[in-house]
Fold this protein.
Amino acid sequence: MDEQQHHEELIKGITEQMKPVLEQSQQAIYIYLDDAHKVCNQKFADLFGYTSPQEWAETEAPLADVVEEDQQAVIKAYRKASEKMAASTVELRAKNVKTRKIVKTSVIMAPVGHAGHVFVTHYFSKI
C-alpha cells in the first residue's frame, strides 16, 4: 500500500471513529491529516457556504479560501496541536464562499490520535 492509499484508509477510519461526534455535535467540525485527507461535518459545510462536506473535502487547501488575515494565527495553532500535542483556541474572521459575508468564529484545535497518526480536530463556534 502506498502512502496515498494509507492516508485514504486513515481518513476513512477516523471518520468512522468520530462519526457520532461529526453527526451530533452542535459545532462545525473538521478533522485534518493533510490537505488531501480531511473530513468535515455538514454544519461546517453550511457555515462556510459549501454544498456538502464532500465539496469542501475536494478543496486543495482547507481554510485558505475562507480565512485571509488570520492565516498566521491558524498556522500557529495548528502547529501547536500537531507538533506539541496541545490544544488551543483561536478567534478568526472567515468568509462564506458563496455569500462572501464575514463569519466571526472561535475555533478550538486539538490533537487526536488514530492508528498511530496525529490528526488535528477543529471545532468552530460562531461568535
The two ends are 43 Å apart (CA to CA). Strands lie at 28-34, 37-40, 88-95, 102-114, 117-126. The first strand starts at residue 28 and ends at 34.
